[in-house]
Amino acid sequence: MDFDVLIIGAGLVGASLACTLEKVVMDQGLRLALVETHDLSQPRDIPPSFDARASALSWGTCCTYEQLGLWPDLIGQAAAITDVHISDKGSFGGARLRAFDEGVPALGYVVKNNVLGDVLLNRLRGFQKRGAMTIFSPDKVESLSPVTGGMKVQLGNSAVSASLVVLADGGRSGLMDQLGIGFEQRDYHQHGVIANIALDRPHNGMAWERFAGKGPMALLPLTADSQFEHQMGLVWTVPDEEIDHIDSLADDYFLALLQKRFGYRAGRFLAVGKRDRYPLTMRIAKEQVRPGLVILGNAAHAIHPVAGQGYNLSIRDTVALADNISISLERKIPVGDLGRLQEYWQQQLSDQSVTSRFCDGLVNLFSRTDSMSTLARNLGLVTFDYCHPVKSRFTRKAMGL
């Protein structure tokens, strides 16, 4: 094989895996390569600050980036989540998760995706300059073919082979269709509306999970910029029958409807940035491992954003896969060995199942508007808030611990 591991896709998950494998390259001689359709040597387009999308990183994900030496470059541009307020609009139920109660400075942090991407890519470029990794960029994988001992990878102008190919391109390339890997999919008949919101008061590290109408609304703390001092990231779950109407609203009317649905607990909404919409589904790959192949990130599992767990689940998969690769090398077993890859998948199966079922259950529970469901939901929130051992276990699970 030309390489031990070849990663397809230099998005946040693929780049994180490459950074996680850096120690394995330096200590154990792993031969690592990465393929990316975009030219990684060129500066990327930077979105307007108020329009920049962000990701909520759990405490566990932040610890992973700290262990990789990446966190010092992120912390200065990250907004801490010190509290999470969960409530049901117009009802008595509510709960609050506090970092102080768990003995940590934050439950997690919110980092703009372009900032996180640049920090990861800067590490990869340094990695490449030292000759520790081969990067094919810009290049495209035309096809993947199983061969003895691994996979043959046909690129745009050349062909290489690898003992293990990690498909981390988000499932958008068509390679999974080519390989005949299907999905188990559930359509929620909802859309996610994402935008940044300017407020009239500081967020003070508070994240809001507000259940109003037919879907949850989340506000995540963001860092300030030169345009607006107080900003939060909105993730609004909207039923399919409402999405076209909401999407067509002018900004003033959009903010007015958002304020009416959410209420004033977080303050007054003053401005909204660029709005994006996308259909919400739960999609799980029917196969995540084959001989010489691992599916990672959104290509492996895309879950509802209600609890902000999708990316953090992918990072936990990434750390587990890197450990699996390292142990295979120690045992002098090919890193693409199916038995070893099945051990990785079995290790992560419980985490993936629990996380996806948890998010799915929240959607079902908080999308119901009948009086009995609302009463049961609010009694549950009150009980949860006062049952500290249960709340602590829940909080630490959400933190990725």
What's this entry about, in short?
The protein is of the alpha+beta class and 401 residues long.
How does this model look, in words?
Helix 1 (about 10-20) crosses helix 4 and helix 1 runs parallel beside helix 8 (about 310-330). A hairpin with a 5-residue loop joins strand 5 and strand 6 (about 95-100). The longest helix is centred in the C-terminal third of the chain and has 29 residues, at about 340-365. The two termini are about 35 Å apart. This protein is of the alpha+beta class. The protein has helices at about 10-20, 20-30, 60-65, 115-130, 175-180, 240-250, 250-260, 310-330, 340-365, 370-385, 390-400; strands spanning about 5-10, 30-35, 55-60, 80, 85-90, 95-100, 110, 135, 140-145, 150-155, 160-165, 185-200, 205-210, 215-220, 230-240, 270, 275-285, 290, 295, 300. Strands 5, 6, 12, 13, 14, 15, 16, 17 and 20 form a nine-stranded mixed β-sheet that branches. It folds into two domains: about 5-45 and about 115-185 and about 280-360, 3-Layer(bba) Sandwich (FAD/NAD(P)-binding domain); about 70-110 and about 190-280 and about 370-400, D-Amino Acid Oxidase, subunit A, domain 2 (D-Amino Acid Oxidase, Chain A, domain 2), CATH 3.30.9.10. The model has no long low-confidence stretch (mean pLDDT about 90). Belongs to the UbiH/COQ6 family. Pfam families: FAD_binding_3 (PF01494). InterPro entries: FAD-bd, FAD/NAD-bd_sf, UbiH/COQ6, UbiH/COQ6_monooxygenase.
Note the topology.
Blueprint: E1 3-8, H1 12-20, H2 22-28, E2 32-35, E3 54-58, H3 59-67, E4 78-81, E5 83-88, E6 94-98, E7 108-112, H4 113-129, E8 134-136, E9 141-147, E10 150-155, E11 159-167, H5 175-179, E12 183-199, E13 206-212, E14 215-222, E15 231-239, H6 240-248, H7 251-262, E16 269-272, E17 276-285, E18 289-290, E19 293-295, E20 301-302, H8 310-330, H9 338-366, H10 371-386, H11 388-398
Parallel strand pairs: 1-2, 1-11, 2-8, 5-13, 11-19
Antiparallel strand pairs: 3-7, 4-7, 5-6, 9-10, 10-11, 12-15, 12-16, 12-17, 13-14, 14-15, 17-20, 18-19
Helix pairs in contact: 1-4, 1-8, 8-9
